[in-house]
Structure formats: C-alpha cells, structure tokens
Specification:
Helix content is about 35%, strand content about 20%. The protein has about 500 residues and is an alpha/beta fold. The strands form six sheets. Strands 4-5-13-14-15-16-17-18 form an eight-stranded parallel β-barrel, surrounded by seven helices. Strand 13, helix 8 and strand 14 form a beta-alpha-beta unit. The chain is globular. It starts with 8 loop residues before the first helix and ends with a helix. The protein binds xanthosine-5'-monophosphate (XMP). The site of xanthosine-5'-monophosphate (XMP) has 27 residues, from strand 18.
C-alpha cells in the first residue's frame, strides 16, 4: 500500500487543494479506456442527470449559447451567465432560446407563414430566423403546405408571387396525425423519402414538425444532454437582488432547465431571502444555489430545499477574493467539508480551480458530483468575445509574430462590473463599493472546445481504469468508502516531480 492511512479525510485535507494530492493506482479491471463504453453519468441536481460530469461556468467570457450548445452536445451542460446589463433581461433570455431551438425531437412550435404572404417576405423570415423550412398554415393554424429554401431558388427581386404558388401543398405532403416515436418517424421518412414530417391533430391543425436533420443529430450524439422533447438542456444564472425574479420568470418561460442563484457568498441573509422568494413564486422549479465552501454553508442551503449546490469560494482562475479579503477555503478541503455535511445527498458542483485534466477527477472524488469549468475553457472558439491579434516576441528567435488572443475575466473584475454598470444595477454597485474581486487576462485563442472536452473525458476514463473501477459512479463509491487506499498527500518535492513540467 502506497497511501497514508486517512482516519478522517477532512482532517487530512485541511488547507489543501488539488496539487497537494496524487492517488495510488489500483488493480485495473477494464480493457478499453473509452468514453463511448465507460459510464460517466452523474447527477447535476436532484432531478437532472448528465452523461458527462462537465458544466461550463456562468461567466460572460465563457458561457453563452455557442458554448452551451457545444457542451450539451458533448454530454455536459452550460449555465448562461447573467452578466448582461442590469435591467436588460432580454439578451440572456435570447441565449437560452438559441440553445433550446438548436435540436429537437419534435419542434412543437415551428415557424409558420400564410399562403398569401409574398415570397420575398418568406425569404426574409427564413434569413431572420435561420430556419430552412416554414410551415404554411391558414388563419386557424391548419396545415396547408411546406415552404423550404429550395422553393425560393431563382425568385426574382421584387416578385409579387406568393408562398402559395411555390409551396408543396397539403395533398402532396407526407404527414402524421397524432404523436409518433423517433424510430417510427425515421422509418416513415426513409420509406417516403421525405426530410420533414409535419404533425397534425384530427382537424388538420398543426401540432409539430419533425426533421430528418434533428433525428440524425440525436443518433450522432447519443451522449448529448436533452430534455423530454429532445431539445438540448441549458441552465441560466440569476442574482439574489434587483431584477432576479423577473429574470428567472423569463428564463423559465423560454425553457431554461435549471436556474442557478449565483452570488459570491451564498451562505448569507441575501441568499436566504432569494431562495424563499424563488420558491414562493416558482414552486419546485429545479434550483441550484451557491457558492459555499463550508459545512455550515452546505447545511444552510440543503435546509432551504435547493436541488443542487455550487461549492467554491475563491479558487477560480479569474478570482481575487482570497487576495483581497483573505477569506476562502482551499478547494479540496471545501469539497470534503461540504460532502460530509450533506446528509441529504444534494448534488454538489465543484466550482473553480481546475487547471488540468487530473484535477477534474480529484474534484469528482473529493466531493463534486460534477465539475464547473471557467478558465479551463478560456480562449476557445465557443467562448463569447472577439479574437484580437497581439504582437508576441518569440523567446528563441526574438522574432515578433502576431498571435490571436481572447479575453477571460472574473465576473467580479472591474472590467466586468463596469460593463454591467451602464444601467442602474444595485448588485454591481455593491461590488464596486466593496472593490473588485476578479481579474481580466488575455489568453491565446486555441480553437474549438470540443476536442478539449473529448480529451478531458478520455483522461477521466483512464483515471477510472487506474482507480480500479468500471464507471465514474463506482470509483466515487470506492473512493468515499476507503479514501486511505487512494489519497497520497504530496511533499514539496513530490509535487515538483508530479506537476512541474
Ligand atoms: P475557474 O477556475 O474554472 O473558476 O476559472 C470558475 C469559477 O470562478 C468563480 N468566479 C469568480 N470568483 N471573483 C471570484 O471570487 C470573480 O470575479 C469570479 N468570476 C468567476 C465562479 O464561481 C466560476 O464558476
């Protein structure tokens, strides 16, 4: 046995974080370390599960629709930040809508148009909405036909022709009365050689649309995080003051799957009030709250009936809370403390401080059910913000080259606060009065986040193999039952040998 005995894990990890530990390898029982066959499923919150334990952080330089779509398609979930200008709820709502409209099983409310509308207007509507099919309906929403981009080829500018003149009319459509499973819809599309299947009720009223593209995506992305209607899942963050309840109402209206009350210090009177008001207004809508980093903070949130808890005070890559206030808990200690205090087993999100793939595993074993990543994804194509070219001097040749960079910043950085302050924002004003607790940095642009996610998942599968388990869940159980079999606390030399490269 390589590991020290750990009679009490919490005592053993006091003051420690990820780079303080290695895990002792165990007898491996799997032959292929392949994310397609190893079960990495986990609980995001009490009623939501993911097939991959990764969550992209609600930060304005990390998660908007593009990142949320990518990570949900890869099996995790994104939380859309609330860092838009205060009083302006609409931009965040639009980001959630974009994710929810990206993939469908059945599109319950496809874009429609009337048969007497001009073709020019139909073309403009397709351009505006980004869809290639409009369902043609009469004034009572009864199906009359389908109009696709192919029908709009060769229209002459200023044409007065109407949709009715080019659409595929009802008598030539293949359609389905009532509901249908994805497998049956696929079968119908294959035999009838159609790519769109409108659904109608007995009177011919349009009730939905199934497209071959959506069915294909479902097949190509078996691990994607989807709701019961086949749409990608997405979360959205709100604050605990100001417009937070109106914001939540709008986010829920457009289909946000989980709302996250996210404030710097979640063990607070402000949070207590916000949770009570949220529950009173929205009942049992899935609610995650944070951040906390102590046993008391965890109990405080579980007693208030939240469905998930975000753990982490000050470990974040863009965060200066510990420097500025001297408060915080090293992330491994925080995870173990919150896990041990969490009698009700409310899922925990390990939020912040993960800088390398190996730390993802540590976050998941020491206490997290999932891991939230911010700086880990910084600079990827799917993050919001422009790419700027900067001159960089190469160390060997001293040549100056232009390198593309993107901005990554803490949500409490001065720059992020100033961006939100244009309109009156009591919360941002509070932070400003206290002083900023975050930094802004430029990071090299580094392509799509998807290969980064896939690589992390491969490494996670290798970790499961080294840990002697067959799945993530099994490894978590084995670790939590006998941590002393795994945990090696490193000396300074051990740390250098392990991580200095
Ligand atoms: P990583 O290390 O993944 O951490 O970048 C992401 C988490 O950092 C937190 N965060 C902040 N914490 N001041 C803070 O004290 C900030 O300005 C700030 N911005 C983000 C947040 O919990 C995020 O998920």
């Amino acid at each position: 046995m390589y590991a020290l005995r750990v009679p009490d894990l919490l005592t053993h990890v006091r003051g420690c974080t990820f780079d303080d530990f290695l895990f002792a390898p165990q007898y491996s029982v799997i032959e292929r370390r392949d994310p397609a066959t190893i079960d990495l499923s986990c609980r995001l919150s009490e009623h939501l599960t993911l097939k991959r334990p990764l969550v992209s952080a609600n930060m304005d330089t990390v998660t908007r629709a593009e990142m949320a779509i990518a990570i949900a398609e890869e099996g995790g979930i994104g939380i859309i930040d609330r860092g838009f200008r205060a009083g302006d709820i609409e931009p965040q709502v639009r980001e959630v809508e974009k994710v929810k409209r990206r993939q469908h099983g059945v599109i319950p409310d496809p874009y429609t148009i009337g048969a007497t509308t001009s073709l020019a207007e139909a073309a403009e509507r397709m351009r505006r909405t980004g869809v290639g099919t409009l369902v043609v309906v009469d004034g009572r929403n009864r199906l009359e036909g389908l109009l696709t981009t192919r029908d709009l080829r060769f229209i002459t500018p200023g044409t007065v022709d109407t949709v009715g003149s080019r659409m595929t009319p009802l008598d030539r459509l293949v359609l389905q009365q009532g509901g249908i499973s994805s497998a049956d819809a696929e079968q119908v599309m294959r035999t009838e050689k159609v790519k769109k299947l409108p659904l109608v009720d007995r009177d011919g009223t349009l009730v939905g649309l199934i497209t071959a593209k959506d069915l294909l995506k479902q097949r190509q992305m078996p691990f994607a995080t989807r709701d019961a209607q086949g749409r990608l899942r997405v979360g959205a963050a709100i604050g605990a003051k100001g417009d937070y309840l109106e914001r939540a109402a709008e986010l829920i209206r457009v289909g946000a799957d989980v709302v996250v009350i996210d404030i710097a210090h979640g063990h607070s009177v402000v949070m207590a009030r916000a949770i009570d008001a949220f529950r009173k207004r929205f009942g049992d809508i899935e609610l995650i709250a944070g951040n906390v980093a102590t046993a008391e903070g965890t109990r405080f949130l579980t007693e208030r009936g939240v469905n998930g808890i975000k753990v982490g005070i000050g470990p974040g890559g863009g965060c200066t809370t510990r420097l500025n206030t001297n408060f915080g808990v090293p992330q491994v200690e925080a995870l173990v403390a919150c896990r041990e205090a969490n009698d009700r087993r409310v899922p925990l999100i390990a939020d912040g401080g993960v800088k390398r793939d190996g730390a993802v595993l540590q976050a998941l074993l020491f206490g997290g059910d999932t891991v939230m990543l911010g700086s880990f994804f910084a600079g990827t194509t799917e993050t919001p913000g422009d790419t700027v070219q900067k001159a960089v001097v190469l160390p060997e040749s001293h040549r100056t080259v232009k390198v593309p960079f993107k901005v990554f910043r803490g949500m409490a950085s001065l720059q992020a606060i100033v961006d939100r302050l244009d309109v009156e924002d009591s919360e941002a004003a509070d932070v400003e009065a206290m002083g900023a607790e975050g930094t802004e940095v430029s990071v090299p642009a580094r392509g799509s986040v998807r290969p980064i996610i896939r690589n992390t998942l491969k490494h996670l599968c290798s970790s499961i193999s080294y840990g002697g388990a067959r799945s993530l869940c099994e490894l978590q159980e084995m670790f939590r039952k006998e941590p002393e079999r795994y945990v090696i606390r490193l000396t300074e030399a051990g740390r250098r040998e392990s991580f200095d490269r």
